[in-house]
Structures are given as C-alpha cells and as structure tokens.
C-alpha cells in the first residue's frame, strides 16, 4: 500500500515545461492548478478526469487562468477571496508559490500549496483533500503571518472557483422556519448572486450553504454536467457568484465577513472551513449520490450505522412531560415495534420548572414534580419494554428566568451598556460560547447526563434562537468582531470533546427544526431534524430539497397527527407513513389518541421499515419525478449498492377525476436483473396487479409500472390521497 501511495504522490505534482502543475484526482474527476515556484497559483481546470497527456497540454487549450485564491490590492477590479490590511496599513497582498506539500493515507490525498506575500511575512496555504474512493475534493485555506502587529482580515473566503459561462443554471435552497430547503433553480445572469446567512447560531432556515451549478442548461436529474459545492460550516456564511464581463462566473464561498473582521495576531493560524466540491456528468442525481456516499463514509457521525425507529414526545404532549405520559408512550412505541423513545422539551428545572418556553433553559436538573422517579425511572421503564431512551437538551441557551442566568449573567451574549434583546418566550438568551467556562458548562450538560444515566442512547440537541445581541463579555474590546467565529469555534470544540468521549451516542442536530442541516456540524451529529413542519405533503418538497446534499440516514422524518399541527391539513395515515418511511423513520404524536387499527398500520410499517432500512439508509437515491414539476405525482427510489434490492416511493400530489398522471420510470436498477415486486403498507382490499410479479430492470427503467391513483378501500375510508411503497427484490 505504501508503495502505491508513493507512486500516486509522484503523479500529484506533474511538470509541464517550466510551469509546475498540481493535478488533484478522484476516481472520475480532476482539479488542475499551475503552481510555479515563485509564481502565481492559478486555477486551470475542474471537471471530468483528465488523462496525463491532456493535463499536460491543457494550458495551451485556452481557458480559465485565474488566480486560484485571488487576493485584493494589485488587481483591484476583480472579485477577491482574500482582502487584508497589513500591520502598517497597506491594503495590498501579492501571493506567490513557496512550495507544495502532499500527504496521503488510505482515505485521501491532501495537497497544501504554500503561498507567501512578495513583501510581507504573510502566508496563505491553499489546501485540497482529494478523496480516493468518492468524487469529492475539499478545499480550504490557512492564513498566518509574522508581522509586527495584528493583520486585519476583511475578507477570507474558503475557496474560489471560476465556472465557464454558457447556459449555466444555479440550484440553491431557500426557505423559512417550517418551510426549509425549498429548491430554487435559475439561469445565472450578469451581476452578483449572493446566498448568505446572518443568524449567528443556526444557518439553514432561510438559505443553505450548498449549491449546484448545472453547466448544460436547465438542471436535469440524470444528465448534464454539474458542479456541486457544500460549505462545511455551522455559522454565518456567504456564497457569491459574480458574473462579470469575463467568460466566467466567479464563485466564492466562505464565512460571512459581515461584522466579522478578524484581527489575526502574529503566529496565529486562521483556518477557513472547507468547501466540498464534486463534479458529475449524471446531473443533479449524480451530485446527490456522490455527496451521500461521501457523507456516510467520511462526514456524518456513525454514517454507516442503521438508525433506530423512534417516538418523540414533542407533538404528543409538548411541555407536559409527566411521568405517566412518558411511560405510556414508551409502552406504546415498544408495542408498535419501535426501538427508541425520546423525551423532548419540558423535563427539567427545579427552582423554575419548565412549563412553557419562558423559563429554565440552563437548569438541567430533573423536574421531580413531573418525573418523580427521575430520568432513571424512564430509562428503567424503556429497558423493561426492550427499547432505548433518549432525551432533549438545548445546552447553548438560557432563559433570564433560570438559576443559571441568576448565577452567571455574564455568560450570555450581550452588548455592553445596552438592554438585552431576548428571543423565544421573551426571555431566551444565547450563551457566550467564546468563553472557555461556558464551553465547559455546555460539555458538562451532556457529560453529566451520560455519567448519571449511561444508558441514554440518543440526545436531541436543539437551538431555538438567533444571536440578537452583538457582544461577547469574554472577548476583548478589539476582538468583538470575532464573536460569530468564536461562537462556532467554541461549539465545535465542545462537540469534539463530546464525540471523543461518547462516539457511539446518537445525536440529533435540531434548531427550531431544520436550522442546522450543514456539513460543519454533521461530523458530530448522526442526524438532523429536517423541519418542525411534519405535514407529509409539505415534507415531500422539503425532503426533496434536503436530499440534494444530505442522505436519508440523517434525515429525520416522523409520522405525526392529523390534522397536522403546523398546516392543519388532514392527511390519511397511510400517506403520512409512506412519506415518513422515505427518510429516517420516526413517530411524533400521542399514540394514546390512535385507534387499534391505526396502531396496527404503524406497527406493520415499522416492521416493513426494518426490512428496507439498509436500502433506504445506505442505498443510492434516484429522484424520479419532482414535485416541483407539478405533474400530479412525486416519486423517488433507493437502490442498494449491489442493485439487488430497491424501494420505490410514489405519492399523488394533486387530485382531479380522470386526470392523466405520468407513468414513472424507475432508475438505478441492473437492466439484466429480474425484480419481484411487493407492495408495503398496503391498505387496498385487493393486491396491486403487479404484486408478486417479476420484471427486468430494463423494463422498469424504460417503462415503469402503471399505478392506480386511488385506493380500493371501503367508502368511509375513501379520500383524495394515494401513495405507494414498492419493495423490489432481485430473483437470483
Ligand atoms: C424546536 C424543535 O424543533 C422541536 O422539535 C421541539 O424540540 C421544540 N423546539 C422544543 O422546544
């Protein structure tokens, strides 16, 4: 293996005449740079894998020759990734290549190109991590200097990428609380497109730090060249696409510098978050499958482990987490075959018991009024019923009505000399995670729980507030602009400590729903709460968008009550189940309000999910019919890596008599494979015509199956909804 690595390293740095090339490769892609010693680091190419000969001749083919990390000052009109004020006030930076270092292991080859300013002792290392088994290259920078006084970093993007103009379309994700990850697609026109976040704590309610560039016109699911990019950061970000007079769109991605000028001390290293890039010629689907594989194998905590089927108490009882109700829910989910019960908000507070959202955050002791036998009583109850126990916390926050705030009023973010602006419940405040003692406190919230109740299997980590006050009591006056960055460094350091001690604990990143769906935090979390909106119809749209970068194994998707608590829509249980089963299945309702028949339907679905779980959670996703096309149907499927099993989902999205719904063609199957069809979650009196029949992958992919658009049920149960889940198993 060592020999192979050495050979590979020789190929990473190739020479073409005088100009030294750096050639970064993944199985099917190449990123090519020109890095002449003492010269400028230039971007040459990113796309389909190049042969050695093409890589050598590429500079003479014409094309992009922009600086790979443009710095401000000596080429003022061009957009830049870096802009600094040197210690003596000089605003210009000119970077030249000092050298290239390469490091390789079984997972990836990391190449660091060291740049130095021509005048100042100011350095930038441009870093690339090219994965060996998956087509992802991560890129970031490391900025440092030895100047006599601090250097001000005004702009410090993680990466820059020029994209050749043509008919390039951008796919991005926007939204709001309870309507996260809506997909937007638009052609890139001259001017500046900015996607940004300024929340301070959460960063994916209103927009996402992931985008897809479709290089061959309007985005297609299965065809066309695409470049996908995901900024791996949990804090404020800014993505800029500057379409200027050149032949290129200029893409910059990094931390949002607004109100965050960084005063870099001599000898300090400033590391920007990584931008993960992929290139695919299989359209939007190729992009997702690559990101999902990379995520499961290298990014997401415990990404290849199956996730348990759970019941969460929130929509069932809200703050009313009384012991009897908790025990009843434990028994109910165990009875339906579930594997985990999660007690949500409401269980804590001694002096100030948590009855509403106005008090108690910070006081992580059990409310013995509600839970006389304590958490240990519930852990014990879960054990007796043969399931695991999980618990909700919101450790980065406090309420002004809490013992924590009374004891440590200086631990919260607050502008000096100003009234505190408060958030949720009119009393919520954000802890100052720049402060090492606060970091210790947050770590201890988890550590104490796990020490006292080592059987806790799952923690839902919530964050329900933005930063509303710019001011860190911990940071010095001239470091106040570091607040947002220091907060996320503090958070990451706490997460690292937790993961070092509790690697197997399942942790969910929740932030008023889908506020923390990002690859900055996911290395520490097993999954995310996709949205506070559990309405099955709206979930189809939100989960569609989310699936463009995030795999089903991480996408929590719960069966909730009807009418839905957010949209008030009445949706039959069958449809709610069929949607929830396309992600990480869970339940979030009060089972005691369900009929025996409903419980049976859920129990059957849970049993079926256990069977298909490996395919859904570890398989390749093929989106088949987009809800955004508004053709009346949405459909997707997961296919096992061996292509011997697949799960097909079909949801009717609108209802008109005798309407013409499209017949959905499948994808991702082995054309020669012969697949037996089995319907899951069946409610119809008669089986489907194709039940138990065998079709070749070729047929299913060319034609698909004709599915009835209503269910054959007794009159009182008829309604406008229809959905199907089909399990395909290859006959050997
Ligand atoms: C917001 C979360 O998204 C909900 O699921 C729930 O945990 C509440 N917070 C609890 O306050």
How would you characterize the overall build of this protein?
Helices cover 21% and strands 30% of the residues. It is of the alpha+beta class and 732 residues long. The strands form six sheets. Strands 6, 7, 8, 9, 11, 12, 14, 15, 19 and 20 form a ten-stranded antiparallel beta sheet that branches. Strands 21-22-23-26-27-28-29-30 form an eight-stranded parallel β-barrel, surrounded by six helices. The protein starts with a helix and ends with a strand. (2R,3S,4R,5S)-2-(hydroxymethyl)piperidine-3,4,5-triol binds at residues 314, 344-345, 392, 462, 464, 510, 512-513, 529, 532.
Per DSSP E runs of 2 or more residues, the count of β-strands stands at 36
Mean pLDDT: 96
**Which sheet architecture does the biggest sheet show?**
10 strands, antiparallel
Helix proportion of residues, in percent?
Answer: 10-25%
How much of the sequence lies in strands comes to: 25-35%
Judged by helices, strands and strand pairing, the structural class is: alpha+beta
Instruction: Supply Rg.
Output: 27 Å
Cα shape:
globular
Bound molecules: (2R,3S,4R,5S)-2-(hydroxymethyl)piperidine-3,4,5-triol
Q: What is the CA-CA span between the terminal residues?
A: 36 Å
Oligomeric assembly: single chain
H/I helix tally = 13
Residue windows where pLDDT falls under 50 for at least 5 positions: 1-11, 13-18
